[in-house]
Design goal:
By secondary structure, this protein is mainly beta. About 5% of the residues lie in helices and about 35% in strands.
Length: about 260
């Protein structure tokens, strides 16, 4: 009944914002997250906002369903929290995305969306955002394939000049497959996030960034997906080696 066009590369994840049907999020290998609004007059889905901050493709999205926050997991080896009220730009602007944009900038094409001295959002030790001015536009100096390569070290130092994320989480690996990340259930206050990892460990963080637990799945094989029980403090994980493991967050055991 509706069609959306706007991403420059593969779309890996879609998510309704809440219980309504109007707002939809999509995440793509162009490193962009777009918000689409079905209420805008005309045929198809209309872009309402653009969220930038990841420097590699977005693997998974999960909405908190409170009309405010959502979570993303990406191939830049980070999970990020976003506020729907604070996009990078409204009406879906921003061009073809980060990876296309830095290539344009490297070729001297300002249409890529990056100026020679873009503002860069960094994080203070306490986690509060601070702004500085970069001395030059970022350069994408490597190519890699998450399906069979490790993430290049130089990629971990890259910062997006239009980062609108509210918090970032690191330590897990988004390699070999599209690893998922989620909010904890409403019965637990949705105060934590958790994610699978290519190293076989499910990591749990408080939304403030404090690590809570590391849950070993089925050995060191890829742990693609995990699920927190809606009412009990247990997480079930699924690994590439075929193991399905239930973890008790209180007793810190598994079965």
């Amino acid at each position: 009944t509706a069609r959306a066009e706007g991403h420059a590369r593969d779309v890996n994840s879609v998510e309704y914002v809440d219980e309504g049907e109007a707002l939809i999020l999509s995440g793509s290998d162009d490193a962009c997250i777009r918000l689409w609004d079905r209420r805008v007059p005309g045929r198809g889905l209309k872009p309402a906002a653009l969220f930038e901050g990841h420097t590699e493709g977005v693997a998974h999205l999960h909405s908190r369903r409170d009309g405010r926050l959502f979570l993303s997991n990406a191939k830049d080896q980070s999970a990020r929290i976003w506020d729907l009220r604070k996009p990078s730009s409204e009406m879906g602007g921003g061009g073809a995305g980060w990876r296309a944009g830095v290539r344009d900038a490297a070729l001297g094409n300002e249409a890529g969306g990056l100026s020679q001295n873009p503002p860069v959002l960094t994080r203070s030790p306490a986690g509060a955002p601070s702004r500085r001015t970069a001395t030059a536009a970022p350069r994408l100096s490597f190519e890699w394939d998450y399906r069979w390569m490790g993430y290049p070290a130089q990629g971990r130092r890259m910062e997006h000049p239009r980062d609108a994320s509210q918090a970032s989480f690191y330590g897990h690996s988004v390699l070999q497959t599209l690893i998922r990340a989620y909010w904890s259930p409403p019965d637990f206050g949705q105060s934590c996030i958790y994610a699978g990892s290519a190293d076989g460990i499910c990591r749990v963080w408080e939304a403030t960034g404090k690590p809570v637990a590391k849950l070993l799945g089925g050995g060191d094989d890829v742990l693609r997906d995990c699920s927190w029980h809606p009412h009990w403090p247990t997480i079930v994980t699924a690994s590439f080696n075929g193991d399905v493991v239930i973890h008790d967050l209180v007793r810190r055991d598994r079965r």
